[in-house]
Specification:
This protein is mainly β. The chain is built from 1 helix and 2 strands; from the N terminus they run αββ. The protein has a two-stranded antiparallel sheet with strand order 1-2.
Length: about 80
Amino acid sequence: STLNNDFRNYGKQHLIDGQDDTCWSSAASLPQSILVHLLAPVSCPQVAIKFQGGFAAKCITVKAYNGKGDVLEHMIYPDDINSMQ
C-alpha cells in the first residue's frame, strides 16, 4: 500500500533509491510486507533498514529461503530513530 495513494512521493520506487530525503510510506494497515525477489542466489550476510523517526515498526520478521526448501527467519525490534540499523 502507499500513503494516500500518493505513489509519486511515497511509492515503492523510493524504498531502495539510496536517497535520505525520500521514503516509501504505506497506508496505516496491518500487516505490511516488503518482498524482495532475487533472480539468482546471493550471499546476504546482513540487512540494513532505516525508518523515519517516529514511524518505526515495532517488530520486523526477515525471512530468507535457502533454495533447499528451508525458511530462515529472524525477528528484529528496531529502534525508533532516523539512522541505519
